[in-house]
Amino acid sequence: MAGVADGLIDFPMGTPLGGYSSRCSILGSSGRVDNRTSAYTVAFTSSAGIQTRPRAQALWLSNGDQDLVLLKADVIYSFDGMVRDLERRLSYATGRDLEGRVVLTTSHTHHAPANFSDSYHFYLGGDRYNEEVYQRMTGSLEDIALSAWDGIAPAAIGFGMAEDWDPDDQVYSDRRGENDALQIWPDQVPGEKKDGRLWLLRVDYADGTPMGVFFNFGIHGTSLGGDNAMISQDAPGHVENAVAEQFDTPIVISHWQGAGGDASPRGSDEGYARLETLGVYAASAIHELWANTPVSTDVFFLETVTRSVQEGLETVRVTRNGTVDWYYPPYDEDAVPDNKIYGPDGEILSPLDEFKAQYGGAFCGYDDPLISTGTIGTSVYPYDGCMQVELISWVIAGIFQLGDFDIPLPLPSSRQALTTATQLGPVPILKADGTVVEEEVTIGFFPGEPTQMFAEQFARRAWDELGLENALVVGYAQDHEGYLLIPEDWLVGGYEPNINLWGPLQGEHIMEGTLDMIQSHLMTRRLEPHDPMDEYPDTIYEQRELPVDKPDPIASAGMVADMVPDQLYTPLPLWEDAVPIVPQARPDRTVARVQGMAQFIFLGGDPGVDIPTVTLQRWDSDRWVEVTTSAGRPITDALPDILLTHTPDPLYPYYDAQNHYWWAGWQAVGHYFDRTAVPLGWYRLKARGRTAVGTAETWPWNTVGYSVASDPFEVVPATISLSFDGTTLLASIDGPEAGYRLIDLEGSSIGPNPVRDATVTWTHGDFSENTEAVSGTSSEGVTSYTLTAPEGAIGLALVDSHGNQGVHFFDSE
Q1: What span, in angstroms and rounded, lies between the C-alpha atoms of 280 and 289?
Q2: Cβ atoms within 10 A of the Cβ of 393, count?
Q3: Residue (of 674, 682, 679) closest to 620 by Cα position
Q4: To the nearest 10°, the Cα dihedral for 344, 345, 348, 353?
Q5: What secondary structure, in 3-state letters, does 240-299 show?
Q6: I need a labelling partner for 653 at 20 to 30 A (CA). Which of 109, 364, 512, 714 fits?
């Protein structure tokens, strides 16, 4: 049995975006667009708009014995406190025993709200914890999971696997050069280390109708950079969007992160358009794997185990099934490290006395420590930049205004890492070599950012030690411990070792804890309790109070702005050569395909209750209807088509009375297919939102809805730019200077794009015409045609198959 669901995550506008510490006020204030303040930030800059909305997807599997609830959310990392909370909520709502059977994995976008996690050291990645943000996100995930439960039905499932599916690095590439020369396994070839594996879980209804597609590879969500202030799904979400358009009806599409810790997004073009190119490059290979993946309705075994792997200076250890014994010595303030990492044969020396960090160390691998007096007292790289967590805790307390509160040491969330493993099968599996087998699949859900060598080590150890051939990694799940590296990789230094707190052994220590529980629980046909002796306690988080910043009731919500307010924020430029959007309160009466943008400014509610949804509508005979994509999804600001920004007036302080202006922009480009062929006709933008009413003193606030529409505007054909020297006609559909949409993979969002399938009509001196089909070649966005003008011709018109047109008249001479 399976059920699936997809939905938006509820966040207030103005929440800080997670992933870049440079967004913190004392570390650079990246992403600050003006002097606005927000009720939802403490030390980070405020988000200011939406490029694509964070979503979550749910897959609920059941075989009668056990359930497994798999949730994926478009946020920076997972939080173990939320996972356990969801277990309780969903168990209560359904009457099912879901303890240890709920998985929360995340996309790792660096452009979504992040202050839902109460792990102190990750305040530096997403601002101080906010109880309202936590409750709103958890409630969204609960609702989406319950929608999957409500739709549970007989299903057919199967797995597909591919190797080297992105050989030209069009989608993602290795970003960690420090380990290129590192060789761990005899059959490994040194060099760039990109995890080229793609695996996919296909879920159909029993009658063969597609239900959901869940695919896995590793990619960072960092295309937009730290200066971006717009909420965005970034690279992973845009791959999902593109895969969704390979189907002719809406189904649930979800990317589960793999070894993304050392994988950068690639793509082409610039800015938001680059995100769309990533999806185009990835979608066909993923859809092909889906199409070839077999499914079965046969009975399968299903079991899941969840534990908190205990951590600490005297707990973290790596044995590799008895082949090594790597550990840290007990903390001794007077001990002096020998500063020797390797033995005469290159072996790692144990104990690793260089990691002299009573409560853990941060920022290891940096050439220069953040604060020189706070290091762990080791002078050899990469330990020499490690800072004592005790000092970091004082910095955190100061930055995030914790007052006289003493952060407990060791940091509560650093003492254990929640991890989960599940096994199901036998199920049909399409192997990378094209063979189909019926075998079991084991998935490890890891609490951090797996790197390529970590994922490779897990697969090898699962086979060597447990005989598990199909052992797969899902990262950014259940909890967050930073980058997950094996010891040899950590010790070569670089950026990745700087976040995890327990040094070079932490990543594989967590892996060994996961392998142990796979061996004890998943290698039998019994359903054992996860932790009957309470040997693996979870983190206990404090109860936090809801904030009391009450949203203002806004009487003007739902009114069209009659002018462009001062300091209105629009989201461009994001890159060199782009120019700002010149804002308009109302759209022009005509908007050209590709080159035109419909804009709309309206007043909305307080951002504590209002993130309006803006939808594109088209006049159809006698009514306005929602415009949908080829897959049947409505075009809203949840997709890349419509940009939405918020500007308070005055900008600050947030607790004074403010008006709240929302700007929406739609560039007249097709969603995925036929980007230069938006149907001609009349359109409008329709916004729906909420404003506060009532007397509630804490969230949830009482609200009432509003709706408001822009003036209608007519979409007309694009202009094709032409030049003709008598023998060569050069043609292009030029993206506007402030363009943000992908137009053509062979062109530019802000420059020339090829013309496809065109005809030329010659105009003669007597104004007669003749038309001929032409074919050309394209380079750098310009299509070139070799033509001979008929005698007496005075001009020509080039028209593509969608009716876009360019006209060129010859000189009178």
Answers
A1: 15
A2: 20
A3: 682
A4: -10
A5: HHHHHCCCCCCCEEEEEECCCCCEEECCCCCHHHHHHHHHHHHHHHHHHHHHHCCCECCC
A6: 109
What the block records as the tokens of 545 is: 């109070």
Residue 385 within any structural domain of the chain: no
Q: Would you say residue 276 lies in a domain? A: yes
Q: State whether 63 and 149 are in the same domain.
A: yes
Which positions ≥6 away from 736 have C-beta within 8 Å? 594, 595, 596, 597, 667, 750
Domain residue limits at 750? 720-809
* Torsion region of 629: left, alpha or beta (phi above 0 gives left; psi -120 to 50 gives alpha): beta
Helix (H) or strand (E) holding 490: helix 487-490
Q: What is the mean pLDDT of the chain?
A: 95
State both tokens at 49.
């708009």
Tokens of 309: 């792997």
* Selection from 12, 17, 19 nearest residue 32 by Cα: 17
pLDDT of 377 over the 70 cut:
yes
| Strand pairing report for 449-450 and 483-484 | parallel
In this structure, are 134 and 267 located in the same domain?
yes
> Are 670 and 804 a contacting pair, CB within 8 Å?
no
Q: Tokens 């990745």, residue? A: 496
User: Are residues 219 and 80 part of one domain?
Assistant: yes
Tokens of 557: 């919500």
Q: Tell me the CB-side half-sphere exposure of residue 263, using CA atoms within 13 A.
A: 33
Same domain, 648 and 758: no
User: Tokens for 624?
Assistant: 């306005």
- Tell whether 694 and 802 lie within a shared domain: no
pLDDT for 813 beyond 60 = no
Per residue in 269-309, pLDDT (tens digit) is 999 999 999 999 999 999 999 999 999 999 999 999 999 99
In angstroms, the CA 769 to CA 772 distance is: 10
Asked, for residue 165, whether it belongs to a domain, the answer is: yes
